[in-house]
Amino acid sequence: MNLQSKLAILADAAKYDASCASSGAAPRNSVGGHGMGSTEGMGICHSYAPDGRCISLLKILLTNFCQYDCLYCVNRVTSNVPRARFTVDEVVRLTLDFYRRNCIEGLFLSSGIIQSPDYTMEQVVEVARVLREEHDFRGYIHLKTIPDASPELMQRAGRYADRLSINIELPTAEGLKALAPEKNSAAIDRSMARMAVHIGESRAARKEQAAQPIVSMPQSRTTRRAGVPHFAPGGQSTQMIVGADATSDRIILATSARLYGAHQLRRVYYSAFSPIPDAAHALPLAAPPTVREHRLYQADWLMRFYGFTHDEIVPTSQQGMLALDMDPKLAWALAHRERFPVNLNTASRELLLRVPGFGVQTVDRLLAARRMRRLRHADLARLHVPLKKVLPFVEAADYRPGRALDAADLAAQLTPPPVQRSLF
């Protein structure tokens, strides 16, 4: 099989993995003629998958051969799909060639499990090592790690990669055991914990070194300390499949909150289950609504940046599921109308962040502005916030919402029915 055919198969096989963001990379560039690639600037260039999706990284599998039989995976051992496998040198050559053509600035590499977890992980790490050490590649590298691989290999992966990810796959241990019996949720958790320790130790050591003064020597010489090496400076992430089993949104968010707290993950990605050919009877026949994945991302954002806890986002009236017809912040506000209206001139930052239509930057601007003067209705218009959504929940120096919050049809007013847009 030629390289182009392999690329078509293994780039398409990687499309199910959502966790390929490039934030958090260590700043590197090739200014001065040293090395190749960069993680700086206005962003990275784009490449395109066979189905037309615009992607920021060369996103491929080392191989889609796999000895595991995860029921939800199109590349499982019992799946009847075309198979291919790159060599280490082929992945290195593709990455460098795509970079030289100004198509990409980084690599996202995952793999099916072949021979053993250690063997597969060694091949994945070798790709990163060759790029870094033999070609001085300074672009972004994200490696998908294998939980059952040895701690030594995982530690080597962190030396070369900007970000590591270990997919938790499903929100509960019971779900994983039912749909991916070869995988062990305890092993995944242990691997995440080890990664968190290594990442924390590296950051602490670099911070401590940065705080130490540089020692000057006689004859105007200055000693240069060897820098503490980075270890996955972009942190670690994971991905959960949504809709492959009956797990509720409440449990999914509880799992995410635990991972953020216990392992300091940078991101949890949510991937809506996609029906696959020759699927097992244990899997649903249809994919969940794509808006469910979107609502989970919104709820995740509320936990990470808006001060919400996972157990207050999903209303009890929804049987553990997020509302699909409105965003979770608006749903929370409508369920807690007694907390509103919020006074723009006296409310705390924490309370302002709970106002529907207010983002973090908007709240910070309001707080800065009210140090100088009292906020009025016109100030909201200047901030270009969605006034229809905001006004029932706030009061200003010259504005009161009256009985708007008591309207029985307030939810309908703020969530108009979707409009089917024409393609022509």
Give structural notes.
With 424 residues, this protein is α/β, with parallel strands linked by helices. It contains 15 helices and twelve strands. It has helices at residues 3-13, 88-100, 117-134, 151-160, 173-179, 185-211, 249-263, 290-305, 310-313, 328-335, 349-352, 360-370, 377-382, 387-390, 410-414, and strands at residues 47-48, 54-55, 58-61, 106-110, 140-144, 163-165, 216-217, 221-222, 236-242, 267-272, 342-343, 394-395. The strands form four sheets. A six-stranded parallel β-sheet has the order 3-4-5-6-9-10. Strands 1-2 form a two-stranded antiparallel sheet. Strands 7-8 form a two-stranded antiparallel sheet. The longest helix has 27 residues, at 185-211. The radius of gyration is 25 Å and the shape is globular. The model is unreliable at 40-45 (pLDDT under 50).
Question: What is the element layout, followed by pairings?
Answer:
Layout: H1 3-13, E1 47-48, E2 54-55, E3 58-61, H2 88-100, E4 106-110, H3 117-134, E5 140-144, H4 151-160, E6 163-165, H5 173-179, H6 185-211, E7 216-217, E8 221-222, E9 236-242, H7 249-263, E10 267-272, H8 290-305, H9 310-313, H10 328-335, E11 342-343, H11 349-352, H12 360-370, H13 377-382, H14 387-390, E12 394-395, H15 410-414
Parallel strand pairs: 3-4, 4-5, 5-6, 6-9, 9-10, 11-12
Antiparallel strand pairs: 1-2, 7-8
Helix pairs in contact: 2-3, 3-4, 4-6, 7-8
**Tally of helical runs:** 15
Average pLDDT taken over every residue: 86
Instruction: Give the overall form.
Output: globular
Strand tally is 12
